[in-house]
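Dear Dr. K.,

Following up on our conversation at the group meeting, I've run the structure prediction for Lipoprotein from hydrothermal vent metagenome. I'm pasting the input sequence below exactly as I used it, so you can double-check it against your construct before we proceed with anything downstream. Let me know if the numbering doesn't match what you have in your notebook.
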Amino acid sequence: MMKKGILSLIIVSFFLAGCAGRVPILLKESTIQNGNYESIAKNLKKNEKDNLLWYLDAGIISENAKDYPLSNYFFDKAEVKIKQYNKKVLAGNILANVGGILTNDTFMDYKPKIYEGIMANTYKGINFLRENNIGNARVEFNRALERQRRAKSFFKVEINQEKRKIHAQAEKTATEKKINLSKIQKLSNNQKTKDAIGKIYSNLFAFKPYPDFINPFTSYISGLFFMSVHNYAKAEDLFKETYGMIKGNETAAPYVKSDLKYAIKLASSTRNNSKIHYLWIIFANGQGPSKKELRFDIPLFLITNKVYYAGIALPTLKENLFAYSYLYITDGNDTMDTKQVASMDKIIKTEFKKRFPIIMARAIARTVTQSTIQYELRERNGAMGGLLGAIYQDIMNRADIRQWKLLPKNFQIAKIKLTSPTVSIYTPGHVKLIELNVDQNANHIVFIRIPERNAKVVYDEVSF
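The predicted structure tokens came back this morning:
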């Protein structure tokens, strides 16, 4: 009878493991290549899923379809989810749910990342700017900047609560299963396990990060916005912040320095009657990193030699390719290349690195708990019980690889003085992507999105 119950548990776990944490795929590879965003966007509301990551991806798809009200509708939905989670953290309610130990993190609600909230507000600000809704654009850029300002202190609160949550679950498990908490400490301090994991993650973590949770692109595009609405003092501060972050690190630093000088010049003028105008390129290039699963076998003697399997599954990040290493822009008289102002790869990896100790601690607690259950099944039901327990543990040993999939790999910028009414944009291979007819008596910002090489180019333009 007991064996039938165990077998039922295994069958159910197969089903649950297949369903847990699944986020509906909104874009297929062929859609990215064809750029048929409009056909998907028109059905998004009808097929809406109450899921943070779904809302975030739907926001970008709608943006690519140039349906900016719809894009902001989904980013609003995403922001509601993020605010709900943040309120729980700040109220200390994160301990209310201590699940995920008997199963895995994919069974839990997805926890928003700080960069996701910042980028959601940034995209909303850009969408409102495209619609010439200056008031709401200002609100969203200010919200994005405020998220950056408060991110470090919020993260500290969140991580401390996560640590308490793991400890509470470990104590609960120790009491219910009658195991010694020192086993968890022994496993976490095992040098072989640490060395194996550290070696694999060393290359991933070998980069120079931006300051804590600050996205140079958000600071830069906010500065460009405030300059466009004649708030030159705030634009100057934001360009200074951006330049300080990327000087010596990113190739776009000279462009940002030029914008800083331009904002200072405009601020010192009694009136803005400059006869010189510029065109800026904002290039969202490629696709951000993908999460993948890594699995590690744990020395069995650390837990007990009476189990068949003990392992830890952890997420890692795999970088994707650029669409193009750069674009170049020419008006027939001058030519400028786009340069990287912010790496989303680096931003995502920075937060992942900061969260990794907690991810590791949860995985350790899970391994100890599930191995203890496996041991009890063997003690009560013999070898078959232990084997089925090992199968259950293997099925549930899964890393949480959910993420916002449609962010770009990096943001690049360029700036060219307008000396001709015709501006063309090319790939490094001299393939013309865009030809623009522009008003030389105005400034222009051109937003370009290319998710991968040879994909359809999505672009639009605002003037000021």
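Two things stood out to me. The chain has a mean pLDDT of 86. The radius of gyration is 25 Å.

Best regards,
J.T.
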